[in-house]
Specification:
By secondary structure, the chain is mainly alpha-helical. It is built from 20 helices and four strands. The protein has three domains: 273 residues, Four Helix Bundle (Hemerythrin (Met), subunit A); 52 residues, Arc Repressor Mutant, subunit A (Orthogonal Bundle); 80 residues, Orthogonal Bundle (Arc Repressor Mutant, subunit A), CATH 1.10.10.10. The protein has a two-stranded antiparallel sheet with strand order 1-2. Helix 10 crosses helix 12. The longest helix is centred in the middle third of the chain and has 28 residues. It is elongated, with a radius of gyration of 36 Å. This is RNA polymerase sigma factor, RpoD/SigA family. GO terms for molecular function: DNA binding; sigma factor activity. InterPro entries: RNA_pol_sigma-70_dom, RNA_pol_sigma70, RNA_pol_sigma70_r1_2, RNA_pol_sigma70_r2, RNA_pol_sigma70_r3, RNA_pol_sigma70_r4, RNA_pol_sigma_r2, RNA_pol_sigma_r3/r4-like.
Protein backbone atom coordinates (compact mmCIF):
# COMPACT_ATOMS: atom_id res chain seq x y z
CA UNK A 1 0.00 0.00 0.00
CA UNK A 2 3.03 2.28 -0.21
CA UNK A 3 2.49 5.55 -2.02
CA UNK A 4 -0.96 6.36 -0.63
CA UNK A 5 -1.56 9.31 1.64
CA UNK A 6 -3.08 8.68 5.07
CA UNK A 7 -6.84 8.85 5.38
CA UNK A 8 -7.82 11.31 8.08
CA UNK A 9 -11.32 11.71 9.47
CA UNK A 10 -11.16 15.09 11.13
CA UNK A 11 -13.85 16.37 13.48
CA UNK A 12 -13.61 20.11 14.23
CA UNK A 13 -13.19 21.29 17.80
CA UNK A 14 -16.36 22.24 19.60
CA UNK A 15 -17.14 25.91 19.96
CA UNK A 16 -19.23 27.68 22.53
CA UNK A 17 -22.59 29.20 21.68
CA UNK A 18 -20.85 32.56 21.20
CA UNK A 19 -18.39 31.09 18.72
CA UNK A 20 -15.30 31.25 20.97
CA UNK A 21 -12.80 28.43 20.52
CA UNK A 22 -11.78 26.74 23.76
CA UNK A 23 -8.12 26.94 24.62
CA UNK A 24 -7.97 23.28 25.59
CA UNK A 25 -10.29 21.91 22.93
CA UNK A 26 -8.33 20.23 20.20
CA UNK A 27 -9.70 18.79 16.95
CA UNK A 28 -10.38 15.09 17.07
CA UNK A 29 -8.33 13.30 14.44
CA UNK A 30 -8.85 9.72 13.38
CA UNK A 31 -5.69 9.12 11.35
CA UNK A 32 -5.34 6.00 9.28
CA UNK A 33 -1.59 5.31 9.11
CA UNK A 34 -0.53 3.07 6.24
CA UNK A 35 2.92 2.56 7.72
CA UNK A 36 1.57 0.01 10.20
CA UNK A 37 2.02 -3.67 9.32
CA UNK A 38 -0.90 -5.04 7.36
CA UNK A 39 -2.94 -7.86 8.91
CA UNK A 40 -1.73 -11.23 7.74
CA UNK A 41 -3.79 -13.11 5.20
CA UNK A 42 -5.52 -10.08 3.66
CA UNK A 43 -4.50 -8.64 0.33
CA UNK A 44 -5.77 -5.45 -1.27
CA UNK A 45 -8.05 -7.50 -3.49
CA UNK A 46 -9.88 -9.28 -0.69
CA UNK A 47 -11.89 -6.57 0.99
CA UNK A 48 -14.43 -4.88 -1.29
CA UNK A 49 -16.75 -7.53 -2.70
CA UNK A 50 -19.57 -6.56 -0.37
CA UNK A 51 -19.56 -3.09 -1.89
CA UNK A 52 -20.07 -4.53 -5.34
CA UNK A 53 -22.86 -6.78 -4.10
CA UNK A 54 -24.86 -3.79 -2.91
CA UNK A 55 -23.62 -1.34 -5.54
CA UNK A 56 -26.26 -2.22 -8.13
CA UNK A 57 -29.56 -0.45 -7.32
CA UNK A 58 -32.77 -2.39 -7.24
CA UNK A 59 -35.15 -2.42 -10.18
CA UNK A 60 -37.13 0.55 -8.97
CA UNK A 61 -34.08 2.67 -8.23
CA UNK A 62 -32.61 1.85 -11.62
CA UNK A 63 -35.37 3.78 -13.35
CA UNK A 64 -34.64 7.15 -11.79
CA UNK A 65 -31.85 6.77 -9.20
CA UNK A 66 -33.90 8.92 -6.83
CA UNK A 67 -32.87 8.70 -3.20
CA UNK A 68 -35.29 7.75 -0.44
CA UNK A 69 -34.17 10.16 2.26
CA UNK A 70 -36.20 10.68 5.39
CA UNK A 71 -34.26 13.72 6.55
CA UNK A 72 -34.63 14.54 10.24
CA UNK A 73 -33.48 17.99 11.42
CA UNK A 74 -30.64 17.87 13.94
CA UNK A 75 -32.75 19.56 16.60
CA UNK A 76 -35.36 16.80 16.30
CA UNK A 77 -33.05 13.78 16.43
CA UNK A 78 -33.25 13.26 20.17
CA UNK A 79 -37.01 13.74 20.12
CA UNK A 80 -37.39 11.33 17.21
CA UNK A 81 -35.29 8.72 18.98
CA UNK A 82 -36.84 9.12 22.42
CA UNK A 83 -40.32 9.17 20.92
CA UNK A 84 -39.79 5.64 19.66
CA UNK A 85 -38.30 4.43 22.95
CA UNK A 86 -40.13 6.68 25.42
CA UNK A 87 -41.13 3.70 27.53
CA UNK A 88 -37.49 3.02 28.40
CA UNK A 89 -36.23 5.08 31.31
CA UNK A 90 -33.46 3.02 32.85
CA UNK A 91 -32.00 -0.47 32.75
CA UNK A 92 -33.78 -1.31 35.97
CA UNK A 93 -37.19 -0.67 34.39
CA UNK A 94 -36.60 -3.54 32.00
CA UNK A 95 -35.12 -5.84 34.59
CA UNK A 96 -31.68 -5.33 33.14
CA UNK A 97 -32.66 -6.69 29.71
CA UNK A 98 -31.17 -5.11 26.62
CA UNK A 99 -33.34 -2.82 24.57
CA UNK A 100 -34.68 -4.76 21.58
CA UNK A 101 -35.59 -2.90 18.42
CA UNK A 102 -35.57 -3.71 14.74
CA UNK A 103 -32.76 -1.24 14.10
CA UNK A 104 -30.69 -2.40 17.02
CA UNK A 105 -30.63 -5.98 15.84
CA UNK A 106 -28.77 -4.88 12.74
CA UNK A 107 -25.79 -3.67 14.72
CA UNK A 108 -25.23 -6.43 17.25
CA UNK A 109 -21.64 -7.77 17.62
CA UNK A 110 -22.50 -10.86 15.57
CA UNK A 111 -23.33 -8.67 12.61
CA UNK A 112 -20.16 -6.67 13.17
CA UNK A 113 -18.20 -9.91 12.98
CA UNK A 114 -20.14 -10.91 9.88
CA UNK A 115 -19.17 -7.60 8.32
CA UNK A 116 -15.52 -8.31 9.06
CA UNK A 117 -15.85 -11.64 7.27
CA UNK A 118 -17.47 -9.96 4.26
CA UNK A 119 -14.41 -7.76 3.82
CA UNK A 120 -12.25 -10.81 3.07
CA UNK A 121 -14.20 -11.88 -0.04
CA UNK A 122 -12.42 -11.84 -3.39
CA UNK A 123 -12.95 -9.48 -6.33
CA UNK A 124 -15.62 -10.38 -8.85
CA UNK A 125 -14.31 -11.72 -12.18
CA UNK A 126 -13.40 -8.96 -14.61
CA UNK A 127 -13.52 -6.19 -12.01
CA UNK A 128 -10.89 -3.49 -12.48
CA UNK A 129 -9.54 -2.11 -9.22
CA UNK A 130 -9.22 1.67 -8.90
CA UNK A 131 -7.23 3.96 -6.62
CA UNK A 132 -10.44 4.69 -4.74
CA UNK A 133 -10.85 0.97 -4.05
CA UNK A 134 -7.33 0.86 -2.64
CA UNK A 135 -8.07 3.79 -0.34
CA UNK A 136 -11.32 2.23 0.88
CA UNK A 137 -9.62 -1.10 1.37
CA UNK A 138 -6.85 0.46 3.41
CA UNK A 139 -9.44 2.21 5.55
CA UNK A 140 -11.25 -1.09 6.16
CA UNK A 141 -8.03 -2.77 7.18
CA UNK A 142 -7.19 -0.03 9.65
CA UNK A 143 -10.76 0.06 10.97
CA UNK A 144 -10.61 -3.67 11.72
CA UNK A 145 -7.71 -3.04 14.13
CA UNK A 146 -10.01 -1.45 16.70
CA UNK A 147 -11.99 -4.03 18.70
CA UNK A 148 -15.65 -3.69 19.58
CA UNK A 149 -16.53 -2.42 23.03
CA UNK A 150 -18.09 -4.57 25.69
CA UNK A 151 -21.28 -3.21 27.31
CA UNK A 152 -19.45 -2.29 30.50
CA UNK A 153 -16.67 -0.52 28.60
CA UNK A 154 -19.22 1.38 26.53
CA UNK A 155 -20.99 2.72 29.62
CA UNK A 156 -17.75 3.66 31.37
CA UNK A 157 -16.36 5.48 28.33
CA UNK A 158 -19.65 7.29 27.73
CA UNK A 159 -19.66 8.60 31.29
CA UNK A 160 -16.13 9.90 30.83
CA UNK A 161 -17.17 11.65 27.61
CA UNK A 162 -20.04 13.37 29.44
CA UNK A 163 -17.44 15.30 31.44
CA UNK A 164 -16.59 17.26 28.27
CA UNK A 165 -20.18 18.48 28.00
CA UNK A 166 -20.23 19.35 31.70
CA UNK A 167 -17.07 21.45 31.33
CA UNK A 168 -18.54 23.28 28.35
CA UNK A 169 -21.75 23.99 30.26
CA UNK A 170 -19.76 25.40 33.19
CA UNK A 171 -17.72 27.58 30.83
CA UNK A 172 -20.85 29.00 29.23
CA UNK A 173 -22.42 29.69 32.63
CA UNK A 174 -19.30 31.42 33.93
CA UNK A 175 -18.95 33.46 30.76
CA UNK A 176 -22.53 34.68 31.07
CA UNK A 177 -22.07 35.66 34.72
CA UNK A 178 -18.55 37.13 34.45
CA UNK A 179 -19.10 38.81 31.06
CA UNK A 180 -15.75 37.43 29.91
CA UNK A 181 -14.10 34.14 29.03
CA UNK A 182 -13.37 32.25 32.26
CA UNK A 183 -9.85 31.07 33.01
CA UNK A 184 -8.90 27.44 33.42
CA UNK A 185 -8.46 27.94 37.16
CA UNK A 186 -12.01 29.31 37.48
CA UNK A 187 -13.43 26.34 35.59
CA UNK A 188 -11.39 23.88 37.66
CA UNK A 189 -12.59 25.54 40.86
CA UNK A 190 -16.20 24.85 39.89
CA UNK A 191 -15.38 21.13 39.86
CA UNK A 192 -13.22 21.27 42.96
CA UNK A 193 -10.13 20.36 40.96
CA UNK A 194 -6.71 21.83 40.36
CA UNK A 195 -5.64 22.95 36.91
CA UNK A 196 -3.57 19.83 36.49
CA UNK A 197 -6.40 17.56 37.62
CA UNK A 198 -8.78 19.26 35.18
CA UNK A 199 -6.32 18.77 32.33
CA UNK A 200 -5.95 15.12 33.27
CA UNK A 201 -9.70 14.50 33.31
CA UNK A 202 -10.15 16.37 30.03
CA UNK A 203 -7.43 14.24 28.47
CA UNK A 204 -9.09 11.05 29.71
CA UNK A 205 -12.45 12.22 28.33
CA UNK A 206 -11.02 12.99 24.91
CA UNK A 207 -9.23 9.64 24.85
CA UNK A 208 -12.49 7.90 25.75
CA UNK A 209 -14.29 9.78 22.98
CA UNK A 210 -11.73 8.75 20.38
CA UNK A 211 -11.94 5.14 21.52
CA UNK A 212 -15.74 5.11 21.25
CA UNK A 213 -15.61 6.59 17.76
CA UNK A 214 -12.90 4.26 16.48
CA UNK A 215 -14.63 1.20 17.88
CA UNK A 216 -17.89 2.12 16.14
CA UNK A 217 -16.56 2.99 12.68
CA UNK A 218 -17.92 -0.37 11.51
CA UNK A 219 -21.38 0.98 12.27
CA UNK A 220 -20.69 4.02 10.07
CA UNK A 221 -19.57 1.83 7.18
CA UNK A 222 -22.53 -0.50 7.60
CA UNK A 223 -24.96 2.42 7.28
CA UNK A 224 -23.00 4.15 4.51
CA UNK A 225 -23.12 1.00 2.36
CA UNK A 226 -26.89 1.42 2.10
CA UNK A 227 -26.44 4.72 0.29
CA UNK A 228 -23.94 3.69 -2.39
CA UNK A 229 -24.51 4.97 -5.94
CA UNK A 230 -26.51 7.96 -4.74
CA UNK A 231 -24.20 10.61 -6.19
CA UNK A 232 -21.75 10.90 -3.27
CA UNK A 233 -18.44 8.95 -3.12
CA UNK A 234 -18.30 6.18 -0.55
CA UNK A 235 -15.44 7.76 1.41
CA UNK A 236 -17.42 11.00 1.64
CA UNK A 237 -20.38 9.07 3.04
CA UNK A 238 -18.08 7.56 5.66
CA UNK A 239 -16.72 11.02 6.49
CA UNK A 240 -20.18 12.49 7.03
CA UNK A 241 -21.25 9.43 8.98
CA UNK A 242 -18.18 9.82 11.22
CA UNK A 243 -19.21 13.41 11.94
CA UNK A 244 -22.64 12.13 12.97
CA UNK A 245 -20.97 9.48 15.13
CA UNK A 246 -18.89 12.19 16.78
CA UNK A 247 -22.04 14.15 17.60
CA UNK A 248 -23.76 11.04 18.94
CA UNK A 249 -20.78 10.36 21.21
CA UNK A 250 -21.10 13.84 22.68
CA UNK A 251 -24.84 13.60 23.32
CA UNK A 252 -25.19 9.96 24.37
CA UNK A 253 -26.49 9.37 27.90
CA UNK A 254 -25.55 5.86 29.07
CA UNK A 255 -27.98 6.03 31.98
CA UNK A 256 -31.07 6.03 29.73
CA UNK A 257 -30.91 2.26 29.24
CA UNK A 258 -30.38 1.85 25.50
CA UNK A 259 -27.24 0.90 23.64
CA UNK A 260 -24.92 3.39 22.03
CA UNK A 261 -25.23 1.78 18.58
CA UNK A 262 -29.01 2.21 18.70
CA UNK A 263 -28.67 5.88 19.57
CA UNK A 264 -25.78 6.63 17.19
CA UNK A 265 -27.65 5.11 14.25
CA UNK A 266 -29.93 8.14 14.02
CA UNK A 267 -27.09 10.67 14.07
CA UNK A 268 -25.01 8.74 11.53
CA UNK A 269 -27.97 8.33 9.22
CA UNK A 270 -28.86 12.01 9.55
CA UNK A 271 -25.35 13.07 8.57
CA UNK A 272 -25.26 10.77 5.55
CA UNK A 273 -28.72 11.59 4.23
CA UNK A 274 -28.15 15.30 4.71
CA UNK A 275 -24.98 15.30 2.62
CA UNK A 276 -26.69 13.25 -0.10
CA UNK A 277 -29.53 15.77 -0.25
CA UNK A 278 -27.06 18.66 -0.43
CA UNK A 279 -24.28 17.28 -2.63
CA UNK A 280 -25.60 14.41 -4.74
CA UNK A 281 -26.95 16.64 -7.52
CA UNK A 282 -25.04 18.94 -9.83
CA UNK A 283 -27.72 21.56 -9.14
CA UNK A 284 -28.65 21.51 -5.46
CA UNK A 285 -32.33 21.23 -4.60
CA UNK A 286 -33.81 22.59 -1.36
CA UNK A 287 -34.44 20.00 1.32
CA UNK A 288 -38.22 20.42 1.16
CA UNK A 289 -38.14 19.70 -2.58
CA UNK A 290 -36.06 16.56 -1.97
CA UNK A 291 -38.64 15.40 0.57
CA UNK A 292 -41.45 15.97 -1.95
CA UNK A 293 -39.54 13.99 -4.56
CA UNK A 294 -39.17 11.13 -2.09
CA UNK A 295 -42.93 11.15 -1.47
CA UNK A 296 -43.51 11.16 -5.23
CA UNK A 297 -41.28 8.13 -5.72
CA UNK A 298 -42.93 6.19 -2.89
CA UNK A 299 -46.41 7.02 -4.19
CA UNK A 300 -45.41 5.90 -7.70
CA UNK A 301 -44.03 2.63 -6.34
CA UNK A 302 -47.13 1.88 -4.26
CA UNK A 303 -49.57 2.73 -7.06
CA UNK A 304 -47.64 0.63 -9.56
CA UNK A 305 -47.76 -2.30 -7.16
CA UNK A 306 -51.50 -1.91 -6.51
CA UNK A 307 -52.56 -1.18 -10.10
CA UNK A 308 -50.09 -3.52 -11.86
CA UNK A 309 -49.29 -0.66 -14.24
CA UNK A 310 -47.66 2.74 -14.21
CA UNK A 311 -49.99 5.33 -12.63
CA UNK A 312 -51.24 8.33 -14.57
CA UNK A 313 -50.45 11.92 -13.63
CA UNK A 314 -53.95 12.37 -12.25
CA UNK A 315 -53.61 9.29 -10.03
CA UNK A 316 -50.24 10.44 -8.72
CA UNK A 317 -51.51 13.95 -8.05
CA UNK A 318 -54.51 12.55 -6.18
CA UNK A 319 -52.30 10.27 -4.08
CA UNK A 320 -50.05 13.21 -3.13
CA UNK A 321 -52.97 15.64 -2.78
CA UNK A 322 -51.33 18.22 -5.05
CA UNK A 323 -52.39 19.85 -8.35
CA UNK A 324 -51.30 18.21 -11.60
CA UNK A 325 -49.25 21.31 -12.51
CA UNK A 326 -47.24 20.99 -9.31
CA UNK A 327 -46.72 17.28 -10.02
CA UNK A 328 -45.32 18.12 -13.45
CA UNK A 329 -42.95 20.65 -11.91
CA UNK A 330 -41.68 17.98 -9.51
CA UNK A 331 -41.16 15.55 -12.38
CA UNK A 332 -39.22 18.24 -14.22
CA UNK A 333 -36.79 18.98 -11.37
CA UNK A 334 -36.42 15.26 -10.76
CA UNK A 335 -34.28 14.94 -13.86
CA UNK A 336 -30.57 14.65 -13.22
CA UNK A 337 -27.70 16.40 -14.97
CA UNK A 338 -25.20 14.36 -16.95
CA UNK A 339 -21.66 15.43 -17.74
CA UNK A 340 -20.74 15.85 -21.40
CA UNK A 341 -17.58 13.91 -20.53
CA UNK A 342 -19.63 10.93 -19.35
CA UNK A 343 -18.34 7.82 -21.12
CA UNK A 344 -20.85 5.66 -22.94
CA UNK A 345 -20.79 2.61 -25.14
CA UNK A 346 -19.94 -0.99 -24.48
CA UNK A 347 -16.28 -0.27 -23.90
CA UNK A 348 -16.90 3.18 -22.42
CA UNK A 349 -14.52 4.56 -25.04
CA UNK A 350 -16.79 7.37 -26.26
CA UNK A 351 -17.71 10.58 -24.48
CA UNK A 352 -21.30 11.77 -24.62
CA UNK A 353 -20.12 15.07 -26.07
CA UNK A 354 -18.96 13.25 -29.21
CA UNK A 355 -22.50 12.01 -29.92
CA UNK A 356 -24.39 15.29 -29.45
CA UNK A 357 -24.89 17.71 -32.32
CA UNK A 358 -24.29 21.40 -31.71
CA UNK A 359 -27.38 23.12 -33.11
CA UNK A 360 -25.56 26.46 -33.31
CA UNK A 361 -22.83 25.09 -35.60
CA UNK A 362 -23.37 24.41 -39.29
CA UNK A 363 -22.54 21.04 -40.72
CA UNK A 364 -19.66 20.94 -43.23
CA UNK A 365 -22.14 20.34 -46.07
CA UNK A 366 -24.32 23.31 -45.15
CA UNK A 367 -21.32 25.58 -44.76
CA UNK A 368 -19.94 24.54 -48.15
CA UNK A 369 -23.32 25.14 -49.84
CA UNK A 370 -23.55 28.59 -48.28
CA UNK A 371 -20.05 29.51 -49.48
CA UNK A 372 -20.78 28.33 -53.01
CA UNK A 373 -24.08 30.25 -53.06
CA UNK A 374 -22.34 33.47 -52.01
CA UNK A 375 -19.75 33.01 -54.74
CA UNK A 376 -22.42 32.41 -57.40
CA UNK A 377 -24.45 35.43 -56.29
CA UNK A 378 -21.39 37.65 -56.38
CA UNK A 379 -20.55 36.36 -59.87
CA UNK A 380 -24.07 37.17 -61.09
CA UNK A 381 -23.95 40.63 -59.53
CA UNK A 382 -20.60 41.31 -61.19
CA UNK A 383 -21.92 40.25 -64.61
CA UNK A 384 -25.22 42.17 -64.46
CA UNK A 385 -24.73 45.25 -62.26
CA UNK A 386 -22.34 48.17 -62.21
CA UNK A 387 -19.78 48.40 -59.43
CA UNK A 388 -21.80 50.93 -57.39
CA UNK A 389 -25.04 48.97 -57.85
CA UNK A 390 -23.29 45.76 -56.78
CA UNK A 391 -21.89 47.36 -53.63
CA UNK A 392 -25.21 48.95 -52.68
CA UNK A 393 -27.10 45.66 -53.11
CA UNK A 394 -24.42 43.81 -51.11
CA UNK A 395 -24.65 46.31 -48.25
CA UNK A 396 -28.45 46.46 -48.21
CA UNK A 397 -28.89 42.67 -48.09
CA UNK A 398 -25.70 41.70 -46.22
CA UNK A 399 -24.43 39.46 -49.01
CA UNK A 400 -20.80 39.72 -47.95
CA UNK A 401 -20.78 40.00 -44.16
CA UNK A 402 -24.32 38.89 -43.33
CA UNK A 403 -25.05 42.30 -41.76
CA UNK A 404 -27.68 44.46 -43.49
CA UNK A 405 -27.56 48.28 -43.67
CA UNK A 406 -30.30 50.88 -43.84
CA UNK A 407 -30.77 53.35 -46.71
CA UNK A 408 -29.37 56.10 -44.52
CA UNK A 409 -26.24 54.12 -43.61
CA UNK A 410 -25.57 53.26 -47.27
CA UNK A 411 -26.15 56.89 -48.25
CA UNK A 412 -23.54 58.07 -45.76
CA UNK A 413 -20.99 55.62 -47.17
CA UNK A 414 -21.57 56.77 -50.77
CA UNK A 415 -22.36 60.42 -49.97
CA UNK A 416 -25.87 60.03 -51.41
CA UNK A 417 -29.34 60.82 -50.15
CA UNK A 418 -31.67 58.09 -48.93
CA UNK A 419 -33.93 58.58 -51.93
CA UNK A 420 -31.05 58.27 -54.40
CA UNK A 421 -29.89 55.03 -52.72
CA UNK A 422 -33.46 53.68 -52.99
CA UNK A 423 -33.59 54.54 -56.70
CA UNK A 424 -30.29 52.75 -57.39
CA UNK A 425 -31.48 49.72 -55.43
CA UNK A 426 -34.75 49.59 -57.38
CA UNK A 427 -32.94 49.80 -60.70
CA UNK A 428 -30.51 47.03 -59.70
CA UNK A 429 -33.29 44.73 -58.54
CA UNK A 430 -35.12 45.26 -61.85
CA UNK A 431 -32.04 43.99 -63.66
CA UNK A 432 -31.76 40.94 -61.41
CA UNK A 433 -35.40 39.97 -62.02
CA UNK A 434 -34.81 39.40 -65.72
CA UNK A 435 -35.60 35.76 -66.64
CA UNK A 436 -32.17 34.97 -67.99
CA UNK A 437 -30.53 36.26 -64.77
CA UNK A 438 -33.00 34.58 -62.39
CA UNK A 439 -32.44 31.25 -64.15
CA UNK A 440 -28.79 31.26 -63.06
CA UNK A 441 -29.81 31.35 -59.37
CA UNK A 442 -32.93 29.21 -59.61
CA UNK A 443 -31.06 26.01 -58.77
CA UNK A 444 -29.87 27.46 -55.44
CA UNK A 445 -33.38 28.37 -54.37
CA UNK A 446 -34.77 24.82 -54.33
Amino acid sequence: MGGFSPIEIRVPARESQTGDRREDDQPSNFLINFSRPEPAGRSDGEILSKLREVAAPDEEDAADQETDLDIVPESDLDAAFLGEFSDIESPEDEGGDDLATDDEDVFEPDVHREFDEELTAAYAPGYRKTNSDDAVGAFFKEMARYPLLKPGEEIELARQVKFLAEVEAVRDRLKASLQRTPTKAEVAQEFGLSDRQLDHRMHRSRTAKRKMIRSNLRLVVSIAKRYLNRGVPFLDLIQEGALGLNRATEKFDPDKGYKFSTYAYWWIRQGITRTIANDARTIRLPIHIVEKLNKLKKAHRELRRDLNRNPTEAELAAALDIPVDQLRNLQQVRRRSLSLNHRVGKGEDTELMELLEDSSTQSPEAKMNETMLRQEIYTVLSDVLSEREREIISLRYGLLTGETHTLEEVGILFDLSRERVRQIQTKAMRKLRRPQVAARLKGWLR
